[in-house]
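Lab notebook, bench 4. Still working through the backlog of constructs that have no structural model yet. Next entry is a single chain of 377 residues. Request: give me the structure tokens for it.
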Amino acid sequence: MGRLQLNDLTKVFESDGSDIVAVNELNLDIEDGEFLVLVGPSGCGKSTTLRCIAGLEQASSGRILLDDRDITYEKPKDREMAMVFQNYALYPHMSVRKNIGYGLKITTDLSKDEIDERVEETAELLEIRELLEKEPGDLSGGQQQRVALGRAIIREPEVFLMDEPLSNLDAKLRTTMRTEIQQLQQDMDITTIYVTHDQTEAMTMGDRIAILDQGKLQQIGEPLECYHRPKNRFVAGFIGSPSMNFLSVEQNGRVLDHDEFSYRISEETQSALAESSQNLTLGIRPEHIRLVSSDTQNAVRTTVEVVEPMGEVTYAYFDIGEQTYTASIEGERRISADEEVHVVFPEEKIHIFDGRSGEAIKNSELGDETDTTAVQA
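Model written out:
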């Protein structure tokens, strides 16, 4: 079993006489066998959270439970967890065989033959058996990462902890290793907590993702749920690439007024905004912006400033007032810089956030073809 619970976990560091709250009353419930990704910008507290779970940092307050056992102040070696670090942390003077088996040698009473057998099985699983007699310096980045994974796997832990394990790999190898780690986790059915700042990794790997900012949990949910139904402006802007576009507007009855245009809304949307302040933020994802004719309701005239053809899609950048926005259009649609166009933000696809708190008031509507319970592969 590997059910992990964080109850009001808080970590405070002291610096020059002042307190820095790295993790602020974090509550998480991770089910046995679940793959949870902690994601957020640098300094959001995700790696500190992982180190507290591992016992490498001591929590300032709160509790960490593993299968209902309080492990908050247990030593790392007693927590039945294995951690994979960003820098691999391999012993350069040891062979791959010794690196993988070292943890068993110092923490168990297994014989040399028993350890060797476990090492062989682990190397076979990771397809690195031919590397067992080599040293880390003779290996590529991807091979070193497999060795680091092997050292964690061989311990048969209750929980895997992974701290940005792919950040040192090139883009193509990262994609390959993402798939391999997912498959490995599914095959072994081990609870896994994976830290990354890369929202693409978060979206494609996790059963659920937990988005952190300044030490606080902003939202936890399945990847597509967080993408289509963000709880606040931070989540909406962080999840998705290119990022969601944001426009400051003021509500006047059934009209949202921007400095450069007016946007007429339906009675249903007006009703959803009834209890909110007049100062709002309208959000629209790049793929939901449409190029339309000039007589379309709510059409906004603008000029394309920059075009980035990507093949399947083309990113078109345009200004409204002093701000630049991004539209993602079909790659077959020809468009050029300096071209005057009319764009519209379909009402069923807009998000509306409170202009002060940033909390979501309205999210985009989902068609029948969209299933937020699905996880991207």
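Notes after review: The chain has two domains: 4-228, 243-362. Residues 369-377 have pLDDT under 50 and may be disordered. Flag for follow-up if needed.
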